[in-house]
């Protein structure tokens, strides 16, 4: 059993789920269309991600009435959803720190290579 998800390990959806959870935490009143725009993904992808979070119990939808007299939903992170968002954040940060360290090493090697080639020409 993985720390990130009860039944599966982290996958390609994790960064998108993290962004959606972070956005919902700040803007629970956003419609799926607003979420899609903010995430820069299609409405279908947003619906898919949101449905998965709802099914796992990490987000719950509550009805509310919008100012234009239409019913809408508040998408509220549950306590397990908050823990999951924190785990995703930690995992994402660790992965990005490793990538950063690898890039720094590559940059240092490339700078050495350029310096060596420059000295060889002169």
Question: What are the key terms here?
Answer:
122 residues; disordered N terminus; mainly alpha; 2 strands; Arc Repressor Mutant, subunit A; single chain
How would you explain this protein's 3D organization?
With 122 residues, this protein is mostly helical. The protein has a domain at 14-96: Arc Repressor Mutant, subunit A. 63% of the residues lie in helices and 11% in strands. The protein has 4 helices and 2 strands, in the order H-H-H-E-E-H. The chain has a two-stranded antiparallel ribbon. Helix 1 (14-26) crosses helix 4 and helix 2 (32-39) crosses helix 3 (43-55). The N and C termini lie far apart (59 Å).
| CATH topology name of the domain at 14-96 | Arc Repressor Mutant, subunit A
| Shape label | elongated
Cross-sheet strand order for the largest sheet: 1-2
Q: How confident overall, as mean pLDDT?
A: 86
Briefly note the structural class of the backbone: mainly alpha
Largest sheet: 2 strands, antiparallel
Q: What's the CATH architecture of the domain at 14-96?
A: Orthogonal Bundle
By DSSP, the count of extended strands is: 2
Low-pLDDT runs of 5+ residues are 1-10
Terminal CA distance reads 59 Å
- What integer value in Å does the Rg equal? 21 Å
| CATH level 1 class label of the domain at 14-96 | Mainly Alpha
* Tally of helical runs: 4
Helix content: 55-70%
As a percent range, the share of strand residues is: 5-15%
> Helix and strand string, N-terminal first?
HHHEEH
* CATH superfamily descriptor of the domain at 14-96: Winged helix-like DNA-binding domain superfamily/Winged helix DNA-binding domain
């Amino acid at each position: 059993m993985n720390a990130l998800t009860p039944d599966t390990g982290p996958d390609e959806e994790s960064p998108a789920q993290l962004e959606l959870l972070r956005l919902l935490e700040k803007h629970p009143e956003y419609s799926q269309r607003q979420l899609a725009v903010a995430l820069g993904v299609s409405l279908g992808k947003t619906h898919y991600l949101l449905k998965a979070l709802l099914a796992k119990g990490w987000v719950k939808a509550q009805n509310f009435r919008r100012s234009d007299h239409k019913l809408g939903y508040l998408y509220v992170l549950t306590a397990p959803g908050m823990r999951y968002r924190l785990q995703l954040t930690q995992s994402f940060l660790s992965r990005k720190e490793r990538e950063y360290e690898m890039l720094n090493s590559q940059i240092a090697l490339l700078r050495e290579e350029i310096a060596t080639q420059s000295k060889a020409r002169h």
